[in-house]
Write a structure and sequence with these properties.
Oligomer: single chain
Largest sheet: none
Distance between the termini: 33 Å
Number of domains: 1
Amino acid sequence: MARRVIRQHSDLAVDHDFWNRHKKAMGPERRLWVRCLEDAIECVTGRAIACGRIERQRIVRQEMRWFASKRIEPGSYLWVCGMLNYDPGTIREELAKRTRKEKG
């Protein structure tokens, strides 16, 4: 199975061809879950947060717990990746690299 990761956010890997071919064919529910995943990535990478430092840290911790979760019910990280046919490990690896760069 080919690895597929959503559109680029910061240093995250991308399969632009997959995204461009399929975004119009995605139904509204799939587009919603793609946007939810993008929002979580934006929160972790600091792209979508316009609040104080303490609140940002809380949001980042909350989103990182979501990415690390092993739960599989609807709305969980693994469920969203499965529904969208994305490799959850690849996204986790890229997020870990990004957060290490920010700390280092």
